[in-house]
Amino acid sequence: MKCLYRLGKALMLPVSCLPIAGILLGLGFWLDPIGYGNHLLLAQIFVLAGSSLLDHMSILFAVGVAFGMADEQDGSAALAGVVAWLIMQYLLSMDMVHMIAEGRIDASYFQHIENQFMGILSGMIGAYCSNLYRFIRLRGPFAAFGGRRFVAIAASGYAVVVSLLLLFIWPHLYRGCIYFGTSLLDTGAVGAGVYAFMNRLLIPTGLHHALNSVFWFDMAGISDLNAFWSSTGVYGQTGQYMTGFFPVMIFGLPGAALAMYHTAYKKNRKMAGGLLLSAAICSVLTGVTEPMEFAFMFLAPGLFFVHAFLTGISGFVCALLPFRIGFNFSAGLLDYVLSLNAPMALNAWLLLPIGLAFGILYYVVFRFCILRFHLKTPGREDEL
Known about the structure:
The chain is mainly α and 384 residues long. Helix content is 67%, strand content 0%. The mean pLDDT is 91.
């Protein structure tokens, strides 16, 4: 648990960069809501600027975790984290997997390998090598590579070993997520709820992409996202695997942010408020939830499980009701507005009462859990 807490503290640095990325995306999408930034130069600049951070969140986490978890926080640990990340990204890229495995492993399993899990893993390698090898002394012609210089060298070796292990482990994990998703296809609202729960629970690993491919795209013949926008689905059914995310992202997580702000220590409240407010705005406008979720995911893993469970409840309730809306990017306010006139949208006004209910539920549950179990959310961290 102490390791998870240290990891959560270390992640606060890179996480603080993410809300501005979501806000930049939101500005770009609002300036050009139809073209998502492709029809207006200024909008495109905002979208590309925001995407440059969110699309490469993995390397931000590699640097932040390596630096934050190292006993001696200096550049050598961060450099080692980047070295590990670069090696793992290259060795596990689709082209390299195809070449190394010679077709024996489906390289498509590695199309989303640049994920938060890989960044965190790379950062932990960097921190571990810094703690273990920064005082090592080499003799003879290798003396110049001792001490901090050896940290990155050691990290590269560990990264190669870990990459080889993941080469065989990752496809099984990916296939397992797909199999789990397909097993939910005929379970109606219950399946939609379980999917929403697992979608949030898998966020730290990046394996939610495998699960999403079953429900949102054409892997299992559902294609919920494409069918919603192309109007080729079944009215009243299509959209059930997207609708449940809207109450959580537009109302629920802001309610959680308010609870974390109110329970933060007074001396830290201003600092926590800035982070939580920007993360909440990011979630509401664009549906990008990582700035909020990673702010407490490892500091209070039990609370993240509660968040995933509440998301599952939202998915179940929305699928059970005659309520259908969809998104192109994520379940934020912009996509909600755009989906109002979609032919497959059904009773879109229900988002307001359902969302308000989930906003209150999130606030009450988060506040109770934080105070009852003395959870370490932003503004309540101890000094290590």
